[in-house]
User: Which sequence fits this backbone?
């Protein structure tokens, strides 16, 4: 009887909109996080599987440039080096120090890259969204910020986006500097500048191959650092790209009234008032220079002046040209007389 009552109660709660019972894993890990973790684990397993195959085929299908990039006969081709090579294939970095040599080795790399590169890009994009969400939440929860940052973000949305892009670039340089310090400790013959140069060339997927890590025991950490860094770099580059796009749109919006004015000059010829053109140009210049003046304490007043200037430019430019009054014609008639 009690079991029947419990079953009916559970069905009633389900019909009323109560959440279904959660599993043991969902109590500790949210369902949204499971998809991110699953993608990351799938990429790690795929990379490790490719490393195992490449490690076994290294005797016949892989050529190592030992003279330039590896100490002779000191470091053997290990599973960690194979995983590192497979990660450079999946991330499209391709240093060039390790290359497939035979037909079957090259064919395997083609098939491996065709499947793995889309998976890697998906994981990097997913990690980028996670990082962007974390950064936005941290920015909202930040207790104190400099006064000029608050004034800039509250009075000017474009300035707020520029501020986010600026802090993102600063964080990228901090991440690259941290990696440079790690590689300086791992590699005996590297300087801090060498490590920073390697991290930047790697995170931007340029991959010249002139500097490559040589210590097999640090290859796994290097792979994780590169994967996380690529997600950060792609997110930051996207933020900077959006800021450039918005700046270009604002520039085109400002150049539109000026282009219309110049077009009116070409259409109307001498009938356009030059003083009106001078006033329009002065207002456009006021609009361009106004955000720079908004850094002082009068941010709200400057913002109102900026909006008024924009409205004035649009109103004056879009208003139809009043036709110039024609000069009066005076007719003089001269009569000749014989008187």
Assistant:
């Amino acid at each position: 009887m009690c079991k029947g009552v419990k079953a009916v109660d559970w069905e009633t709660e389900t019909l009323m909109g109560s959440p279904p019972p959660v599993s043991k894993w969902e109590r500790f890990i949210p369902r949204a996080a499971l998809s991110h973790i699953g993608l990351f684990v799938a990429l790690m397993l795929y990379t490790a599987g490719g490393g195992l195959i490449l490690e076994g085929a290294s005797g016949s299908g892989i050529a190592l440039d030992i003279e330039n990039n590896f100490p002779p006969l000191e470091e053997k081709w290990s599973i960690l080096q194979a995983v590192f090579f497979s990660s450079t294939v999946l991330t499209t970095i391709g240093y060039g120090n390790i290359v497939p040599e035979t037909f079957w080795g090259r064919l395997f790399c083609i098939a491996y890259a065709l499947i793995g590169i889309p998976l890697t890009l998906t994981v990097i994009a997913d990690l980028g969204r996670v990082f962007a969400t974390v950064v936005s939440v941290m920015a909202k929860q930040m207790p104190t910020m400099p006064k000029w940052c608050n004034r800039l973000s509250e009075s000017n949305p474009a300035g707020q986006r520029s501020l986010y892009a600026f802090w993102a670039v600063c964080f990228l340089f901090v991440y690259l500097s941290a990696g440079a310090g790690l590689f300086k400790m791992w590699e005996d013959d590297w300087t801090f500048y060498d490590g920073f140069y390697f991290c930047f060339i790697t995170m931007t997927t340029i991959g010249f191959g002139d500097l490559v890590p040589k210590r097999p025991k640090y290859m796994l950490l290097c792979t994780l650092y590169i994967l996380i860094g690529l997600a950060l770099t792609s997110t930051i580059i996207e933020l900077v790209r959006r800021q450039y796009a918005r700046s270009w749109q604002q520039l085109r919006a400002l150049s539109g009234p000026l282009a219309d004015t110049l077009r009116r000059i070409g259409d109307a010829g001498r009938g356009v008032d030059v003083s009106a053109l001078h006033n329009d140009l002065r207002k456009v210049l006021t609009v361009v220079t106004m955000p720079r003046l908004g850094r002082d304490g009068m941010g709200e007043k400057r913002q109102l002046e900026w909006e008024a200037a924009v409205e004035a430019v649009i109103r004056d430019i879009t208003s139809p040209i009043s036709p110039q009054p024609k000069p009066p014609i005076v007719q003089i008639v001269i009569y000749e007389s014989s008187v």
Q: What stands out?
A: Confidence is low (pLDDT under 50) at residues 1-16, 70-75, 289-298. The chain has two domains: 27-241, 245-318.
